[in-house]
Design brief:
Helix content is 62%, strand content 0%. It has helices at 8-34, 52-79.
Length: 89
C-alpha cells in the first residue's frame, strides 16, 4: 500500500479556498438581505402618558437621597475643606 501524505501547502490552499467561498456566501447573503423590500412605516397613535408613577418615584428618591447628600456636604465642610468657617480640627 502506498500512503500519500498531504503537504502543508496543499492544506493551506484548501483553507484559503474555503475562506474565499465562505466570504462570497456571506457577502451574497448580506446583499440579498440589504436589498430586500422594506415595509412602509406604520403610523403610531399618540397616547397621553400618565406621569403619576414617575412623580412618586422621584419624590421617594428625593426623600431618601437628600439627607445622605446633606450629610456628605456637612462632613466635607467640617473635616475636609480647611477654608470653610465650620472646619473642625
Amino acid at each position: 500500500m502506498v500512503r500519500m501524505e498531504k503537504s502543508k501547502g496543499d492544506t493551506m490552499s484548501r483553507i484559503a479556498t474555503m475562506s474565499r467561498v465562505l466570504l462570497i456566501i456571506c457577502l451574497s447573503f448580506l446583499g440579498l438581505v440589504g436589498c430586500s423590500k422594506k415595509e412602509e412605516p406604520k403610523t403610531q397613535t399618540v397616547v397621553a402618558k400618565d406621569f403619576s408613577s414617575e412623580k412618586g418615584i422621584s419624590k421617594d428618591a428625593y426623600i431618601y437621597g437628600f439627607p445622605i447628600l446633606d450629610n456628605y456636604r456637612l462632613l466635607y465642610a467640617y473635616f475636609v475643606n480647611k477654608e470653610d468657617p465650620n472646619y473642625k480640627r
